[in-house]
Amino acid sequence: MNFLKAIISRFKKNKDLYQIAEYLADEFYKLRNDWYNNCLKFIEQNLIKEDPNVNIDLKPLSGIADLSIKAYQIYLASFFIKKNNYVPQKLHQSFIVLLTILVTGDEEYSNIVEKYKIYDKSDYSRHVGELTGSISEYLIGHPNGLIITSLSPFVKELIIYNQAIVASAFGDMQTVNKIFTSIKEYYNSKQIKIKSND
For residue range 85-113, what is the model confidence (pLDDT) as tens digits? Predict the structure, then answer.
């Protein structure tokens, strides 16, 4: 994969964009694991307690679930970066390739690109089904309607926090503040207590 090495080399010369990509990769890792763990807690507290006979293996994030969440995070970042013109148009695709490499490493790169294409060619409801279906498949070996339906509301949270990370990486604190204001308004309207990221 010589073209991957060429892209890394190209962006190492542009330290600002390379550091932003590294920051995004690190923050996406933390978000991915936190988000997945919140999904597991919900499954444990709601689905398993309701039906002790349900056979769900609450294992650490890996496999198809990890791959699917990574691809979705990169898809969301690409869309949000382009929408807000954070990276010059001529560098956008290369920057996303760099981000993908930093998030996944060489060994997963082609698999992530395939998952990314699924997200890129579909709508939000398909995104939700793809993402939650992959988690269900990882946990119990096949897509399960109850898990998919239960985890669907969590996808919105992943999107919002992913956007906040991207905006923050590019120093767009005005957008970050708007995102967190909308999060608080949403949760206040639902009377749900959220954790503070201060």
Answer: 999 999 898 899 889 989 987 677 777 87
